[in-house]
Design brief:
Keywords: Metal-binding, Molybdenum, Oxidoreductase. By secondary structure, the chain is mostly beta strands. The chain contains four helices and 21 strands. 7% of the residues lie in helices and 32% in strands. The two termini are 30 Å apart. It binds the ligand Nc1nc2c(c(=O)[nH]1)N[C@H]1C(S)=C(S)[C@@H](COP(=O)(O)O)O[C@H]1N2 and molybdenum atom. The site of molybdenum atom (MO) has 6 residues, from loops.
């Protein structure tokens, strides 16, 4: 086990993670043979600074602002005593796939050079944000809800925060205190984080300490400078295979992968083994949940040794199919083009 960075608490073994500065990406092969959920030990970590260690017994969540009737604080045990809900939801960084702007489109974008591993699906348990907001009373003039993290301020931009419109906050947002049946791990927001289905990962504020309900639109660096034009994630697909995986020639292989989209359910996944000249439909297996992902598989019997490229493309409920090229984006968000996954077919 190699602890490659001190900003993340959990071990980051090389076979499961690629470390990028203060963040860590899950390798594609880390989901191979796994069930529907991403185990906590291999879930990607995106930290702006570093994981804080918070004592749940003294932790408080402040809920206040001009849009609230009775501002108050909640303790950990109080939250855990409230009615809970459980959801299977993906969290994906808006920058997932950014590396391919450079490697596939010769248009490198600055920022963490994620492959496709800045995504994970977990079973989150906690309290609906709307139930908490109902406890404090929301005024009809409420416009935005601003959740803020307790981690150290990021450069000169202050604490990580990202406003949600009141409509989304009162819809399907969860204040999660459990991840896959365990108390939230430190790196994923202990004691409490937001989980915002379908939206870019930054909305799912970790180490939540403060929720402010405002009666006018809120401007923060996280909706003006960064992530300004991004809310829902587009469709993406990944193989559960190592980059440059080696497969023996001759046999029949069952290749696995997953597709997901913040815009809705995945309705079709196709795979090409010939650089996009022809496509074959993959078969779905397992659950098929909106705001999570769709596991699929396809058979392949490679007939020659040497370098090959695998391509997978998904179509989501909005009718949009992953394109071959993603338009330039100055911050490298939302790379949704088909990723060309290299592998080597070798003599068995
Ligand atoms: N407080 C706080 N919340 C945060 C962040 C952060 O740095 N600080 N990073 C955000 C970003 S950009 C992403 S993609 C997700 C990543 O969640 P994870 O680290 O649990 O995978 O958390 C979000 N919430
Ligand atoms: Mo992110």
């Amino acid at each position: 086990m190699k602890q490659a960075t001190a900003t993340i608490v959990k071990p980051l073994p090389d076979h499961l993670f690629r470390v990028h500065g203060e963040s860590a990406e899950m390798r594609g092969e880390a989901m191979s043979g796994m069930g529907y959920h991403t185990p906590n030990d291999r879930f990607f970590v995106r930290n702006h600074t570093s994981t804080p260690l918070i004592d749940a017994t003294t932790w408080r969540l402040r809920v206040h602002g001009a849009g609230v009737r009775c501002p108050r604080e909640f303790g950990y045990d109080e939250l855990r005593a409230m009615q809970s809900r459980t959801f299977d939801v993906a969290i994906e960084c808006a920058g997932n796939g950014r590396r391919f702007f450079g490697t596939q489109q010769h248009d490198a974008a600055p920022g963490t050079q994620w492959g496709l591993g800045a995504i994970g699906v977990a079973r989150w348990r906690g309290v609906m944000l709307k139930d908490l907001l109902m406890e404090v009373g929301v005024r009809p003039e409420a416009v935005d809800v601003l959740p803020t993290g307790l981690d150290a301020p990021f450069k000169d931009y202050g604490h990580v925060c990202r406003p949600l419109p009141i409509g989304k906050a009162m819809d399907d947002v969860l204040l999660a205190y459990e991840m896959n049946g365990m108390p939230l791990p430190a790196d994923h927001g202990f004691p409490v984080r937001l989980v915002v289905p379908g939206w870019v990962g930054v909305a799912s504020i970790k180490w939540l300490g403060d929720v402010e309900v405002s009666t006018s639109g809120v401007q923060t660096p996280w909706n003006t400078v960064f992530y300004a034009d991004v809310t829902t994630n587009p469709a993406k697909s990944a193989f559960e295979l190592a980059w440059n995986a080696r497969l023996p020639v001759g046999g029949l292989h069952i290749l696995h992968g997953r597709s997901w989209s913040g815009r809705g359910r995945i309705v079709r996944v196709e795979v090409s083994f010939d650089g996009g000249a022809s496509w074959r439909e993959a078969e779905h297996h397992g659950r098929h949940l909106v705001s999570a992902w769709l596991p699929w598989h396809i058979t392949w019997a490679p007939r020659r040794t040497g370098a090959h490229v695998l391509m997978a493309r998904a179509t989501d409920a909005s009718g949009i199919t992953q394109p071959l090229v993603t338009p330039h984006h100055p911050f490298g968000y939302h790379f949704d083009a088909v990723v060309r996954h290299p592998l080597e077919v070798v003599n068995g």
